[in-house]
Amino acid sequence: MNLLRSADELFAIKSAFLNQHNISNGRFTVLLLLSAAVDEGEAEPPARGPAELAEMAGVTRATMTGLIDTLEKDGYVRREPDPRDRRAMLVHVTPKGEAFTNEVLPGYFRRVGTIMAPLDATEREELLRLIMKLREGIAAAGAVDLPPPSTV
To answer: What does the alpha-carbon distance between residue 25 and residue 14 come to, in Å, rounded to a whole number?
Structure first.
């Protein structure tokens, strides 16, 4: 119950912050995924396919299409044909999307830092290790066949 309560509270804090910037959690996640290479020292943000973005974000392809549609309408991303596969599209963050992300990230990271501040480096590593173990358990639980409910 403590884990579920903590997750709900984390989501509420994140949602409240993102609402102040008029962006949904899903749309923000897409912008973060598209902006990731800049943090890794690349010259420009990577272009990614919608299917790759959906897998990285843990959402369906249909959900990702809706997120990209809205971000494109707002001018934060653009789609263009994949030069290696004419049937596929790539999604790029636009300068407007980069500027928005750069404006929002400092406040976002301050909140994350405040949340994580009570943990020292060893505890943060241990927390990550335990979360990864939980994710393994969650994946395994999704594959378990449950008996049908009784019809008594």
So the answer is: 8
Could you read off the pLDDT of 66-103 as tens digits, one per residue?
A: 999 999 999 999 999 988 888 889 999 999 999 999 99
Which residues touch 14 (CB under 8 Å, ≥6 apart)?
25, 111
Question: 2-117 has which CATH code?
Answer: 1.10.10.10
Residue 42 phi, psi dihedral angles, 5° rounding: -75, 160
DSSP per-residue codes, 24-57: -HHHHHHHHHHHHHHHTT-SSPPPB-HHHHHHHH
Task: At 39, list the tokens.
Answer: 């943090």
Global pTM reads 0.80
Distance (Å, whole) CA 39 – CA 109: 14
Q: Count CB-CB contacts under 10 A for residue 91.
A: 23
